[in-house]
Amino acid sequence: MDFLRPASWEEALAAKAEHPTAVPIAGGTDVMVEINFDHRRPEYLMDLNRVGELAEWEVGEETVRLGASVPYTRIMDHLRAELPGLALAAHTVASPQIRNRGGVGGNLGTASPAGDAHPALLAAGAEVEVVSVRGTRMIPVDAFYTGVKRNALAPDELIRAVHIRKADGPQQFAKVGTRNAMVIAVCAFGLALHPETRTVRTGIGSAAPTPVRATAAEEFLNAALEEGGFWDSGKVVTPSVAKRFAQLCSAACNPIDDVRGTASYRRHAIGVLARRTLTWTWESYRTAERKGGVA
Amino acid sequence: MRVNFTVNGRPQEADDVWEGESLLYVLRERLGLPGSKNACEQGECGSCTVRLDGVPVCSCLVAAGQAEGREVVTVEGLAEYARERAGGTPAQDSGLAPIQQAFLDAGAVQCGFCTPGLLVAADEMLERNPTPSDADIREALSGNLCRCTGYEKIMDAVRLAAARQSEGV
Ligand SMILES: Cc1cc2nc3c(=O)[nH]c(=O)nc-3n(C[C@H](O)[C@H](O)[C@H](O)COP(=O)(O)OP(=O)(O)OC[C@H]3O[C@@H](n4cnc5c(N)ncnc54)[C@H](O)[C@@H]3O)c2cc1C
Ligand code: FES
Ligand code: FES
Description:
- Chain B: This is Oxidoreductase.
- Chain B: Keywords: 2Fe-2S, Iron, Iron-sulfur, Metal-binding, Oxidoreductase.
- The complex is a heterodimer.
- Chain A has helices at 9-18, 31-36, 72-78, 84-91, 96-99, 104-110, 117-124, 141-144, 215-227, 230-233, 239-251, 263-290, and strands at residues 2-4, 23-25, 44-47, 57-59, 63-67, 126-132, 135-140, 145-147, 150-151, 158-165, 171-176, 187-194, 199-205.
- By secondary structure, chain A is of the alpha+beta class.
- Among the domains of chain A are: 1-47, Uridine Diphospho-n-acetylenolpyruvylglucosamine Reductase, domain 2 (2-Layer Sandwich), CATH 3.30.43.10; 171-294, Enolase-like, domain 1.
- Chain A has a 5-stranded antiparallel β-sheet. Chain A has a 3-stranded parallel β-sheet with strand order 1-3-2, with helices on one face. Chain A has a 3-stranded antiparallel β-sheet with strand order 11-12-13.
- In chain A, strand 4 (57-59) and strand 5 (63-67) form a beta hairpin.
- In chain A, helix 4 packs antiparallel against helix 7 (117-124), helix 9 runs antiparallel to helix 11 (239-251) and helix 11 (239-251) crosses helix 12 (263-290).
- The mean pLDDT of chain A is 96.
- Chain B is of the alpha+beta class.
- Chain B folds into 2 domains: 3-76, Beta-grasp domain (Ubiquitin-like (UB roll)), CATH 3.10.20.30; 78-167, [2Fe-2S]-binding domain (DNA polymerase, domain 1).
- Chain B is 37% helix and 12% strand.
- Chain B has a 5-stranded mixed β-sheet, sandwiched between helices.
- In chain B, a hairpin with a 2-residue loop joins strand 1 and strand 2 (10-14).
- The longest helix of chain B has 16 residues, at 152-167.
- Chain B is globular and about 45 Å long.
- Chain B starts with a strand and ends with a helix.
- The model of chain B has no long low-confidence stretch (mean pLDDT 96).
- Chains A and B meet through helix 2 and helix 5 of A and strand 4 of B.
- The structure holds flavin-adenine dinucleotide and FE2/S2 (inorganic) cluster (2 copies).
- Residues 38-41, 43-48, 58, 60 of chain B line the site of one FE2/S2 (inorganic) cluster.
């Protein structure tokens, strides 16, 4: 094994072009487990910790450009206002020690269907900034997950950052697991209200081969909220609407049975989380509306 | 490969390090610092917790090469670290950090395997948050498993250390 230690982003891109099999290591919270247990013996390990800009973020007009290796702890401490869904999801990852090292770039690199950042990114709306010596691609996060633990990266590409839409309304994230800390999701659900466009977006984790949006559920709810004038009136979402939304979210799942839960439990639980997060976010929206402000 | 970094304030050099080796392995097997424990090697138990440039991390999940040029504090250096933080006032008579003394006084150590990681994590929390609530303590220690104590005495120990800290004892 060789240990590559690029001191800059340009050096990292050049090294990845020269050694496309090199495995990048950021927080190491996925990579080191695989190496410690001999599940992976990469020819080259490439440390990204010396590339300072990967650990930085910029808050722009519309989006936050979140460097690939910004640790979860930072997201929780500094970006809760701009990225509330992701901050909530970050807080459910593992433990303080893991959150001090791991970040969204590594979560995307691993592309596990159980990765907690994914439902939040899908719900908020995000693009992955992917770079190689050949140039830059902006990949919508919906298109980034290509299979179980597979993503859209070419062998010479690295993730530079994720551009996440700043929240324009309430967002929620909920996860089912056996306890609060150190839990891989049995399933997880992210929901974001976007009052500016009068749309709702969702993200489902651990209930399909990849993280997915419940698009049919989103379309149904968008139409129901619009037709009923809910965005203007701020009235309570009709129980039948919430129920139908939950059913459609369950239907968007394509889960498996495994040690953490059965497929039918996951489908059921996603429906429960969908209804709950809709209630929570809509309550915050209503409260903000009544106070006369924008959520 | 060779790795140069600072451990407990002293420059260290580790030679013949395998590229896939963890910081934990280097500390224990190459530098003779077995305080950080190896229980799971997968980030689950926290018994290997050290501070990397001040930040608590699982040393089993840091590649040794990633520690190059950086500062590590292990449980072996905790008393000295706490002494310097307190402005150089002499350590307790015992030579222990306040959090170590509190663990002993509260009976928070049984087999002791989890203790080094808990001490490093708890000490860092008290540095950040001198008056933690019980919820803060639970949260800060949620990455550290103990199979013996049932955690109550550990909670007592951290409360005791916080109380002593605020009384300036
Ligand atoms: C005990 C434990 C509990 C965990 N619990 C959770 C949990 O609750 N929820 C959760 O989502 N995850 C969990 N994880 C998994 C892990 O912490 C996350 O996936 C984390 O986001 C990984 O980030 P990292 O920086 O540590 O990634 P690394 O391990 O450094 O890298 C992960 C993958 O991404 C690639 N990669 C990293 N950076 C880049 C880049 N810039 N460009 C291209 N590829 C890159 C690497 O090559 C590797 O394939 C847990 C892990 C452990 C050990
Ligand atoms: S040995 Fe590192 S967390 Fe268990
Ligand atoms: S005292 Fe034995 S594991 Fe904690």
